[in-house]
Amino acid sequence: MLLFLVRHSLPFMFVFAILGFLLPSVSLAFFPFLPVVLFTLMTLTLLGMKQNELIQRLRRFSIWRYAILHSAVFMLVVGAIGWALSFEADLLLAVVAVAATGSLFATPAIVRALGFDSLQAMAMTIATTLVLPVSIFVVLVLYQTEKVELDWGSYFIRLIVFIFGPMLFSFLVHWSLPEESLSRFLVKISPFTILLVFAFPFGLVGSFRVLFDHDPMMALNYFMIATGLCAVFFALSYFFYRKQGQDIALTAAITSGNRNVLLTYSIAGVLLGPAFLPLAGALQIPTYLLPVFTRWLNRCLLKLNNSKD
């Protein structure tokens, strides 16, 4: 059964988002455990990577240029679209905050399942997370009329726990254990790390179901907006990186489409307004449909390129 789930992990991410919507009480009950799953996934993913190579990637200007696209550029784009469509203040704040959000920590595992460069995705994920406090501060200053009081202590604790902690742990493990033994262990467990990703769509979609039960039309509106956000992030990133090759373009696109709304909410909380959590829940369905769409798109593009040759 586990091997079947691993083999078909990409469509099952979407299935678990649907299950979370159908079982809202279970989804909401599971929500508090997501940070533990997040830490475990980040640690296992980093264990499979050489830390010196990851640091070398983070030193590249191209990674930080991507982080600017991921946050600042998309904040401007989404803000302009929201203003043109006359979004209410709370909804406009929520959509721009989503644009400021870093990439999901599960992205490297998803990218690896697609057969692309997970190290590149990890570097992109870390870079977008590191610029998040600046981005979200700008969002709150521009779109929030209340006094801005970010929970900096909470953010830096999470930064240490979810990024620097696993990086240090991985470095120590690679330094202290024989590489051959560690490689055999990682080969056995690495296929199953993707199963941890299922927890995120399942645990986050419950807040959207609450909105759906209260106001179905508003929930449908939020779902359409969430789908539009994913499409804009994905499409613009793909076309921005298209000249660098199909693998890089699709890696950038899906990394941009995945947004770590859980971390953003833990930093700014209620300052993000009442629209943020329902929108974050609505995002789970299109977000976890993206891997399936990306795999299909990759196959179509490969066939198109082969036919040209």
Show the helix and strand layout.
Blueprint: H1 2-7, H2 9-22, H3 24-30, H4 34-47, H5 51-58, H6 61-84, H7 89-100, H8 107-114, H9 118-130, H10 132-143, H11 152-176, H12 179-189, H13 199-204, H14 206-214, H15 216-241, H16 246-257, H17 261-268, H18 276-287, H19 290-308
Helix pairs in contact: 3-14, 4-11, 5-9, 6-7, 6-9, 7-10, 7-18, 8-9, 14-15, 14-18, 15-16, 15-18, 16-19
Organism: Marinomonas pontica
Protein name: Bile acid:sodium symporter
Transmembrane segments: 12-42, 63-85, 91-111, 123-143, 155-177, 189-212, 218-241, 262-285
In summary, what is this structure?
By secondary structure, this protein is mainly α.
Structure description:
There is one protein chain. With 309 residues, the chain is mainly alpha-helical. Helices cover 80% and strands 0% of the residues. It contains 19 helices and no strands. The chain is globular, with a radius of gyration of 19 Å. The mean pLDDT is 86.
